[in-house]
Amino acid sequence: MAAVAAKLHVLMACALLLLAVGCQASPFWPLQIGFYHDKCPQAEAVVKGVMEKAISQNPGNGAAMIRMLFHDCFVEGCDASVLLDPTPFSPTPEKLSPPNDPSLRGFELIDAIKDAVEAACPGVVSCADIVAFAARDASCILSRGKDVVTPNKLDRQYYKNVLSHTVLFTSDAALMTSAETARMVVDNANIPGWWEDRFEKAMVKMAGIEVKTGYQGQIRKNCRAINYY
Ligand code: HEM
């Protein structure tokens, strides 16, 4: 087991840093952060390629990845545990819990990304990093608005809708009933870049919850199951 552990590279700590700079078109950002630069230089481009295609086919794939990261990170940290299928030893994994089943989607997309990444660099990129990269790419692609139409764009429109009373839920309208949250709505709606900046920082913070480092964790062969060897 120790020998196995010694082979494991765990990498998630870097994913959050990558989230921070992922929206820059700069070709230099992987070099600045560079976690996979030596181990798998193509990794992030491979993820991005799959995400761009998936979002162009259905922008909902982007939303799915953003929510996937949230649902993974809020239960025992960002460890890709939400991806695990049931087994006889673990018949009711997170995936089957009410917050996830049946509404969490995108598991096949994660499989497709993992397959593409494994084809490029077998056994190098963790499933948790794949989720973080996919969510980062989704945020960037959807906020850029390229190839997506307005309802699918990730922007501050929601807050403008709260101000114009064109929101769906009682909980949306309730944001205007306290001075503190009303102020946030007004700032998010009216100050260009204000919400975007906070969203990015929040995603980076979220992607850092209990990340595994050093010899913790493992690089799964298949994101749906832990490796037995
Ligand atoms: C405790 C706080 C939250 C609650 C109670 C909540 C609840 C929900 C619910 C009920 C849905 C609809 C699911 C369905 O299709 O039936 C949803 C969708 C979604 N949530 Fe949340 N959410 C929360 C926080 C968040 C956060 C922090 C994020 C982003 C980081 C997020 C991102 C999303 C996205 C992107 C969708 C749409 C997913 C898709 O289209 O597949 N949510 N959420």
Bound molecules: protoporphyrin IX containing FE
SSE arrangement, N to C: HHHHHHHHHHH
What is the third-level CATH name, the topology of the domain at 2-151? Peroxidase, domain 1
Radius of gyration: 19 Å
Total helical segments: 11
How many strands appear in the DSSP assignment?
Answer: 0
State the CATH architecture of the domain at 2-151: Orthogonal Bundle
CATH classification class of the domain at 2-151 = Mainly Alpha
Beta content comes to: under 5%
**Overall shape:** globular
**Ends: how far apart?**
8 Å
Largest sheet: none
- Helical content band: 40-55%
Q: Which class best fits the helix and strand makeup?
A: mainly alpha
Uncertain residue ranges: 1-18, 25-32
Q: What is the averaged pLDDT score? A: 87
